[in-house]
Each structure stands twice: as structure tokens, then as C-alpha cells.
């Protein structure tokens, strides 16, 4: 077995190691046949931490061949044995929690605390996958005299997942547990910006006893993705990333009859009404829009301030000013993303909005990384780009409204529909908002309403393309196809020995 070991030293948080990211095919590291590679940048330090190979069609074919060869034996293994691998993955992830978190903080720029939180959520998804061994029965019924119908959940075959930069370990674990326990073999295409978290996972799965070829990784970008989505032999593709790519893959996957589930971008609205608890609300709003430096699809983005809530807005601003980049708030993934975020703030200011908290000049002493501090833009209008488009940074745009219904109309008009939240101490107010939000994941006094397992993850409208959600039992249904079996047995007249 080829070992890939990151030169990890949890005590040396400022050290940027240099590691080549190769493909993982049939249980070993391989260079890409294309020979192409690009730098991977540590966004906290602004330094290259290695090169990642860029795979072409031939590399995807290699991964497909390995996955096809591994399929018959893996599929034939009883589900309980497949699930045992996941129990061991959980134990290994827990034993290596520091390393996994450190790795994420380097390739993605998260603070250690937020990196750790995302690995823990990944472990929760592994637990869900492992418990499928007790929950994946198909159901049966005697539908007529002597006739029984039953359902068997069969694997699809070779399947694939394409994932974004913002959660390099957790998002692959939205897919792998259900897909693998269901009996499929898998090709994972990580984000080229953050190849290492997935690589470390591949080794952990191997150490946990996953047979070689059941999980394969091809690195790269558009070329690898297009080969996967057009591949006749790959039966399903799950995607998590931006809306244009999710939408394109959903349509394109249909050409080869694939199942496609594409989670896209987001623009999440928080509504604050005058009866909201000031402390709970302000703390929660700050955590929601600045967590992971706003680079999460569940981050708050627009604050709809209903009526007289200045005291809450002031506390949000005060708390935001206290956050220290590099300590409380992580880095932005790239210089390009940083510039995009700053452009949204500049444009809103030029259009007449007030920059209540300004993170544009944020720096971290001694770091050449990419920083934007918490930023609050007050006095926004629904037409402004900072309100309509996904910024994906620690920026909160505030729109003032006179009524709750006015606020809900603004939320409803967004083409996205990932998450929405209301802050109130009134059950009746909360229920009115919950019944009207155009969002798949809603919160009351929780600004990041991520459904915990076994509840599945997924938004509505332009935030999701496809049927069902990711994770939970929906994940298992996505990665399987139901075989319906109808059985009738009758005694033969010559079976006189029966009774
Ligand atoms: P992205 O869409 O740029 O990239 C996602 C994946 O698609 C990567 O693996 C990338 O290599 C590939 N890709 C990029 N452009 C492509 C193209 N033109 N053709 C084919 N493949 C392409 O997204 P990102 O910048 O890595 O991640 C941020 C986005 O992901 C945000 O929009 C965020 O909201 C979204 N996101 C959504 C969820 C969710 O659950 N809805 C979760 C996490 C992130």
C-alpha cells in the first residue's frame, strides 16, 4: 500500500507543509495521466502548500475501471459487514480529530474551532451511514390471498460525488456513508482548491477495511467533472457547489439517464421582530454570518429588521467589531474571492448604503493570507446586488421593513431557498414565518438551521436541483433503486406429503 502522510504537527499552526495531491485509484496514489497540476494555496498564509493533479478523461476511466472491478464483491457483502467499515471510520476519525481539523484549517483557512466542528458533523454523518444496517429494510405486505409484495433496496453500481471547497471533509461525508453502505462503489471529485481533506479520508476508509477500488478519488476541475457527468457507466452523481454548475449538471446528467442531485448556492434571510430576545438574537446572528467567514451555504446573508429593532442591530454591530480575524474568523479561500466580496461592499456603499461595520481593511499581523473582517451594510434595498446575489463572505446586508409580511415578501422573492430564520419570543409569530418562508431549512432563533441526522439536508428553488435531499434516509434512497418483488406460492395437488 502506498502511504500518503501529511507532515502534521498540531502544535505548529503556522507551518505550511508542501504535499503533492495525487489521485487515489484502486487503493493507491497515482499521478494524473494528463500530467497537469496546479498550486494549492493555504489561504491563511497565502503560500502554496503543494500541487494538485488535474485529471482528464483517461484518469476518470482508470477510476471507473477500479470501481467496476471492486463492485461485485462489495455489493455481495451483507450490509451489516459493509456498515462495520463505517464504525471503524468513526473510531479512526475520532482518534485523528486534531489532525483532520488542522488539515482543514490549512487548506481551507478555517479557525481550528470551526474546522473541528465540521469534522464532528462529518462523524455524525458516518454514524448515520453505519446505522443503516438496522434501518434499511424495505417493507413487505401480504397484498392478496397468498401474494406477498416486498421491496429490496439495490445499489446502483458505480456512482460519483463532486464537492465544493468550503467543507473538504464534511461534504464528502454527506455522500459516502449512504452510498457505500448501500453497496455502490464511488468516484469522488474534491474541489481542486482543497484536495487534502478527501485524501486523508481515503486513507482512513482503507485503514478501516474498505476494499481497494470501492472509493476512488480523481482531482481536477471542469474536465474531470464533465467526463463524470457524461459517463454512460456512472449511474448517479451527487453535486454540492454553486447554482450554475448544479443546474448544468442536473440537465446534462439526464442525457445518460443518471440520477442527479445537485445542491446549489444560497442567499439566506434572517428576520428579526421587535419582541426578539436581544442577547440570544444578536449572538446568534453574528455567529451565523461570520462563522466559516461566511463561506457556508447556511450562513446568514440578509437581515430583515422589522420595526423598532435598533437595539438588536446595535448589539450585532458591537459584537461584530470585537471579532479578531485569524482568531475568531477564518480566511477567505482565495485572493479572487476576497476581491469579489470587497466589490459587493464597495458597490453597496456607492449606491447609498451605510457601512455600519467595515471589514475591508482586515489584516492579520505577519500573514499574507486573504482576510475580510465582519462587515454590516445597513440601509440596503432589495434591488442591490449585495441583497440579490450570493456573496459568500462575512457580510450582512440589512433591509429595514415596517411589517413582518413585508419582510417575508422580500425573502420569498429570492430565487434561492436554502435557509431562513426568524428571531422572536412569540410562537404565533414564528409559525406565521415558518409557514411562509420559501426555504427548505428553516430556523426559529437558530441562524444556521442545519438539520441534524437523521433529518436530511437540502434547500428549495435555485438552491437544489433534483428529488429528495442529501444525507439521512433520503441519501440512502438516492443511492439505491427499489426492486419490487411480488411472490405467489401455491400448493400443488400432488404434494400430498404436506399434511
Ligand atoms: P463551485 O460550483 O465553483 O465548485 C464545486 C465543484 O464543481 C468543484 O469540485 C469544482 O471543481 C467543480 N466545478 C466548478 N466549476 C465547474 C464548471 N464550470 N464545470 C464543471 N465543474 C465545475 O463551488 P465552490 O466555489 O467550490 O463552493 C461554493 C459554492 O457551493 C457556494 O455557491 C455555496 O453556496 C455552495 N454550497 C452549497 C451547499 C449546499 O448544501 N447547498 C453546501 C456547500 C456549498
UniProtKB/TrEMBL annotation:
PANTHER family from the UniProt entry: MALONATE-SEMIALDEHYDE DEHYDROGENASE (PTHR43866:SF4)
KW Cytoplasm (keyword) present: no
Gene3D superfamilies in alphabetical order: Aldehyde Dehydrogenase, Chain A, domain 1, Aldehyde Dehydrogenase, Chain A, domain 2
Domain Aldehyde dehydrogenase stretches: 29-484
Pfam families: Aldedh
Similarity field: Belongs to the aldehyde dehydrogenase family.
Keywords, ordered alphabetically: Oxidoreductase
GO terms, molecular function: methylmalonate-semialdehyde dehydrogenase (acylating, NAD) activity
Biological process according to GO: L-valine catabolic process; thymine catabolic process
Protein name (record): Methylmalonate-semialdehyde dehydrogenase (CoA acylating)
InterPro entries cross-referenced by the UniProt entry: Ald_DH/histidinol_DH, Ald_DH_C, Ald_DH_N, Aldehyde_DH_dom, MeMal-semiAld_DH
Superkingdom assignment: Bacteria
